[in-house]
Specification:
The complex is a heterodimer of chains A (225) and B (88). Chain A is of the alpha/beta class. Chain A is 23% helix and 25% strand. In chain A, strands 2-1-3-4-11-10-9-6-7 form a nine-stranded mixed sheet, sandwiched between helices. In chain B, 27% of the residues lie in helices and 28% in strands. The chains are: A alpha/beta (225), B alpha+beta (88).
């Protein structure tokens, strides 16, 4: 049986097609999910892609959080469904309270677009098991509101429980607290990050193919579970 | 129709780079003596019917769950008093 991974398209999503392509390249079947459709169509995992859902009105991800599809995603994520939020998808996960903290305007106010080196801090999540702890990867990063913030207690707790999944190396591109690029929930099935692994899956178009590991990780987990 | 105003501001401990950029532009424009600027959002809600405790409680809930992200923002809710127009 083929593993089916859903990718939600919100009005204003941009990277849904790239995410579906990355899923295909990893060997799973991508399934397009629509923001107004409450059904997840029996997918085994969900990716919330990058972009500017609902024009980033109010706050990034704030309106997407209340879309019909997210009601089911939130419910299923709490029950263990693997969910990956990339960039705008990370913002949606924070607004949905599936992940703690929030993403704010880059401290330098500029939109940033660069190939970003990251360190994998946690290789035990549903989406990072094909990496090794301490591994360094390079994937594109592009955001205007990617500064990760949370109160000190939450940051301490994330660090203490190994829930910081990725950290920025070389430069902190957006003012994120403690160089945090990505985090996970307690169970390790929900992961959110600002950089874009789905843009680093083919030599022709990406700086590396380092991003493919996200999708092969979840595929392996679903096949063996 | 009554108007309820919801003001949303970043919490004091959250960096406000937009407010800082505004503040830094002020001396160049000839405005001296303003040491800090914080930028926020103001929502004006036109409410049908009376703005009683029940309506205010619902607006409070709407502000808390939707208009503001209380991880990074504080908000206030107030009823805007309208001046009575006295017919001539």
């Amino acid at each position: 049986m083929t593993t089916r991974i859903g990718v939600v398209t919100f009005p204003g999503s941009l990277d849904d097609v790239d995410a579906r392509r990355a899923i295909s390249l990893a060997g799973a079947e991508p399934v397009a999910l629509w923001h107004r459709d409450r059904s997840l169509h029996q997918v085994d995992a969900v990716v919330l892609p990058g972009g500017f859902s609902y024009g980033d009105y109010l706050r990034c991800g704030a309106i997407a959080r209340f879309s019909p599809v997210m009601e089911t995603v939130v419910e299923q994520a709490r029950a263990g469904l693997p969910v990956l939020g990339i960039c705008n998808g990370f913002q949606v996960l924070c607004e949905s309270h599936l992940l703690p903290g929030a993403l704010t305007r880059n401290d330098h106010l500029h939109f940033v677009c660069r190939d970003q080196r990251l360190r994998v801090e946690n290789a035990d999540t549903a989406w990072t098991s094909d990496y090794t702890e301490g591994q360094e990867i390079t994937v594109p990063l592009k955001n205007g509101e990617g500064g990760y913030v949370a109160d000190e207690r939450t940051l301490d707790e994330l660090e203490a429980t190994g829930r910081v999944v990725f950290r920025y190396l070389d430069v902190n591109p957006n003012g994120s607290r403690r160089d945090i690029a990505g985090i996970t929930n307690e169970a390790g099935n929900v992961v959110g990050l600002m950089p874009h692994p789905e843009h680093a899956v083919e030599a022709l178009t990406g700086p590396t193919t380092d991003g493919l590991g996200f999708f092969t990780s979840v595929l392996k987990k679903l096949v063996t579970s | 129709m009554a108007r309820v105003v919801v003001d949303v501001m970043l919490k004091p401990e959250i960096l406000d780079p937009q407010g800082q950029a505004v503040q830094r532009a002020l001396p160049r424009l000839g405005y001296e003596g303003i040491s800090d600027v914080r930028q926020g959002k103001r929502f004006e809600l036109e409410v049908e019917g009376p703005v009683d405790d029940d309506a205010l409680a619902r607006i409070h809930q709407l502000a808390e769950t939707f208009l503001a992200n209380t991880v990074i923002e504080d908000f206030t809710v107030r009823v805007e008093e309208r001046e009575e127009v006295t017919p001539a």
